[in-house]
Write a structure and sequence with these properties.
By secondary structure, the protein is α+β, with helices and mostly antiparallel strands. 24% of the residues lie in helices and 22% in strands. It has an 8-stranded antiparallel beta sheet with strand order 1-5-4-3-2-8-7-6, covered by helices on one side. A hairpin with a 2-residue loop joins strand 3 (51-56) and strand 4. The chain is elongated and about 95 Å long.
Amino acid sequence: MAAGLRSVTERIGDGAGQPFLDGANGEELMHVQPGVSIVLGNHHRSPESPGTLYITTKQVVWLSDTDRAKGYAVDFISVSLHAVSRDPEAYSSPCIYTQIETGAEEDESEDPGSESDDDTLNLSKITEMRLVPSDPNQLDTLFAIFCECAELNPDPIEEEEGEHNWVFSADQLEFDAHEGDDSEWAAPENSTHTIGANGNIDLAHSVVQLQINDRRFEDAEEMEQDDKNGHE
């Protein structure tokens, strides 16, 4: 379940410090990018003073360079979208734009016109985050790392459906007509497309069920014709 954005108030090491990593569960640091400002919520908010961005195999962490008690983190499993934004009409500076799943209802999410004061920011309702590097040339690198780490954290629902990745080809569905006519499975002779892959299980069932029903309908017509011939 999406946990959304959360506050990070503790860190390890000297100086600005670093985030805690869950090494016991295989979390590894993938990239460190200094000189990154963060903008939480809608684009009208002011960015935080520059900090350091840490990208791990599990999460994105931003830590303030000036306040050891200020930081933010979000698990990749809660990041529903990430993209490079260079459009000045969307935001004044080039950035990595992300959308965050909070698990809250749509009408409970952040109101763009409410609470411009960062001190009253409700992290549980933040659905947008912008990461603004001081060097825009780093955007493509950051985006590539985001993509790599996102692939390491698939959505639990998609992962579960992947366990039932049923793909039926024409050869698998078609039975040799010479072996018997009582089979309920059939496929068009000229079918060249697979069906029912990656979430289209309902489509596969519908197509196969339609073929079954068509076959039973043909059987019913044959029985009705036999009855008529018997009464003549």
